[in-house]
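Dear support,

I submitted the protein below through the web form. The confirmation email said the job was done, but the results page showed an empty box. After a refresh the structure appeared. I'm attaching both so you can tell me whether what I see now is the final result or a partial one.
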Amino acid sequence: MNAASELGNSLSDDWSKKHLLGLEELSADEITLILDQAAEFKRLAASGETKLGALAGTVVANLFFEPSTRTRTSFALASKRLSADTVDFSSAGSSLSKGETFVDTARNIEAMGVDLVVVRHSTPGAPHLLAKHLNASVLNAGDGTHEHPTQALLDIFTIREQRGSLKGLTVALVGDILHSRVARSNIWGLTKLGARVIVCGPSTLIPPHVEKLGVEVSNNFDEILAETDCINLLRIQFERQRSAFFPSIREYAHLFGMNGDRIKRSRKDVLILAPGPINRGVELTPDVADGSHSVILDQVTNGLVVRMACLYLLFQRRKQESAVGAPQ
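What the results page shows now:
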């Protein structure tokens, strides 16, 4: 606990954000700060310090208005690892069904003594709206097709852990770029840390003018295999699609799915990532998902320490703010 506090304080002194709403608004230094704090939490866990008191007395509300397994469980466990109390909310059976607004629901939960609010919502910008109405710090756990900052952070953390640095690496984001909040957050984070980013998929699933974000575009997966260090295979967002963007699942898997043949034609040390949930046989075949190049389960493991880091840094900023405002 002492070790965590000492190092955490030295890192958190450089953190100034009240909310974590997306990677678009963060600098390379701020992203690196989160990654470094996550690395310290992982080091402490490896040495046996898995339960820290850094957020003791703090209340974290997990407001999930969309289904989630990894993100919701990861945030809940991250809070518990830091000794915070948690409030878990789901829209099913809530007062939203009685006509209560999204903001009023959040404000009522905040009034019960909540310090940090983790929110996932189907509407882009929902966390930004809450940030304008709450005194609590807001952490975006995914808003529509906009951003999913902690997923991108854990993706980047995993790559950095394996390769040491992002600078100079070529990272391909393959699949449904159009509907993917993970892709957007990854683009912001990867480019700020010096990676070359290629987005690849059917032309119908590539957003117009995406090159303005500093990425390259390819519609031919096979052509970029030999030049790519890391391949992040994005799930087809069937639940967000309102029309057919490709002829068939079989056709998509044939053209853009990662399989054993494509692994053989890739770089020998290529990393295979996927944000999950994965559709086996669509974005990637089982032999690839479970193969030696896959770091998919490492991503899940790293998601815990990344979310611990985000919660911790936001809370430390609140403590500093309270100390400044306290009477002398």
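Response: this is the final, complete result; the empty box was a page-load delay. Confidence is low (pLDDT under 50) at residues 1-8.
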